[in-house]
């Protein structure tokens, strides 16, 4: 007898933390992508070394682990391709969105430069080569060799989704080995400065997929266990206390100038003694040790607090949950809005009120877009009758998250 399809059983309510935290990360990314507004002083990057991008990658890994791993468990009956195809299809969708956002950003700053008579706008955010030497730079755009500032998150996510089927298959059988290999790749890439190349020119991708894969893989492993109703790392009071103390230590490092200066000097001394670059800097590109430890501690502490689950499921958190459920749409619209707001604020650099007004307006538009998308999805969804009382519940935490968690 073949195994029952784990996707066909009755589903539990989805875990509200996944949607709420992904929505919160998207909101923070949007605010941080409109520099010069007063709200950016309250985003995650002000309270620690990591920021909303790390949180988004972890939560996206969790969602992908929940949404796609069940298909790999039944691949012997259904085949491998039906399990892999949704992930690669999603990667293709993200690639197309990346191209659309790239073209939109070029158009926004070109129009702003003409409207405000500010040709210097054509040199911002790595746009200079596009307008000065288009014959060499434009061919690199579809190859992801040339990326525009603030439009450089999705390329790494595309690469990680292409590799995700193999990570999921390993994570289902040997999660410890998956994390060990992922950690080894992160270490080698950080020490040797291994990165995807930028071209034409030098340098590498802003979010290096060889290092950022470590938190995405962690998210995958968490999601695989979460779908089974299990934790990847058991709750432990000593570990919780250690992580909480580390978060407070980092907060002091960030907020107390004298202490921060002292700690940065110690980091410099360790670098002079030969400790690898990725251990003694706060590099975002290589996901340096301080940033990595901070996001790991934050994820563990948050996962251990029951009140956070209740808060994420509360009515007041509904806008964040809805934005998280429609992550790609919200991210894409948020990117276009943030680029447009940047151009407007550059054109009216003496109007401080724009920094106060535009971000809340943008967040409202993002919520409205997510709400419309949710309504349209509900109209398209087939009506389901209530299951018999004796039906065995599905062991899939996250419920309908399986259908669209990786959006």
UniProtKB/TrEMBL annotation:
Listed transmembrane segments: 55-72, 93-118, 148-170, 177-194, 206-224, 236-253, 288-308, 328-345, 351-370
UniProt-listed Pfam families: OpgC_C
Region spans: Disordered: 386-407
InterPro entries membership: UCP028704_OpgC
Keywords (A to Z) from UniProt: Membrane, Transmembrane, Transmembrane helix
Protein name: OpgC domain-containing protein
Species: Ponticoccus alexandrii
């Amino acid at each position: 007898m073949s195994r029952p399809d784990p996707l066909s059983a009755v589903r539990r309510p989805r875990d509200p933390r996944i949607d709420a935290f992904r929505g919160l990360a998207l909101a923070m990314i949007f605010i941080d992508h409109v520099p010069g507004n007063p709200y950016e002083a309250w985003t995650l990057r002000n309270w620690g070394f990591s920021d909303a991008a790390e949180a988004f990658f972890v939560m996206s890994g969790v969602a992908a682990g929940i949404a796609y791993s069940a298909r790999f468990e039944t691949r012997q009956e259904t085949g491998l391709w039906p399990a892999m195809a949704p992930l690669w299809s999603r990667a293709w969708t993200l690639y197309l969105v990346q191209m659309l956002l790239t073209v939109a950003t070029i158009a926004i700053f070109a129009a702003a430069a003409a409207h405000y008579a500010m040709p210097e706008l054509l040199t911002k955010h790595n746009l200079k080569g596009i307008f000065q030497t288009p014959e060499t730079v434009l061919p690199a755009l579809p190859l992801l060799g040339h990326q525009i500032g603030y439009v450089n998150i999705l390329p790494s996510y595309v690469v990680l989704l292409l590799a995700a089927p193999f990570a999921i298959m390993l994570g289902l059988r040997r999660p410890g080995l998956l994390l060990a290999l992922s950690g080894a790749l992160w270490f080698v890439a950080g020490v040797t400065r291994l990165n995807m190349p930028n071209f034409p020119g030098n340098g590498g991708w802003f979010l290096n997929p060889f290092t950022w894969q470590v938190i995405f893989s962690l998210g995958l492993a968490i999601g695989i266990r979460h779908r089974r109703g299990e934790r990847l790392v058991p709750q432990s009071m000593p570990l919780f206390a250690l992580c909480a103390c580390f978060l407070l230590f980092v907060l002091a490092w960030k907020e107390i100038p004298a202490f921060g200066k002292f700690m940065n000097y110690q980091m410099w001394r360790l670098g002079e003694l030969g400790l690898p670059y990725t251990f003694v800097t706060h590099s975002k590109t290589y996901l340096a040790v301080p940033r990595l430890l901070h996001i790991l501690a934050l994820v563990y502490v948050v996962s251990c607090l029951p009140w956070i689950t209740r808060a994420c499921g509360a009515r007041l958190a509904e806008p964040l949950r809805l934005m998280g459920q429609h992550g790609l749409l919200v991210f894409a619209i948020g990117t276009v809005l943030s680029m447009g707001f940047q151009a407007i604020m550059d054109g009216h650099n003496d109007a401080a009120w724009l920094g106060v007004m535009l971000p809340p307006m943008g967040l409202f538009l993002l919520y409205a877009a997510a709400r419309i998308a949710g309504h349209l999805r509900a109209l398209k969804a087939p009506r389901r009758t209530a299951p018999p009382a004796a039906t065995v519940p599905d062991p899939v935490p996250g419920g309908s998250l399986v259908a669209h968690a990786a959006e």
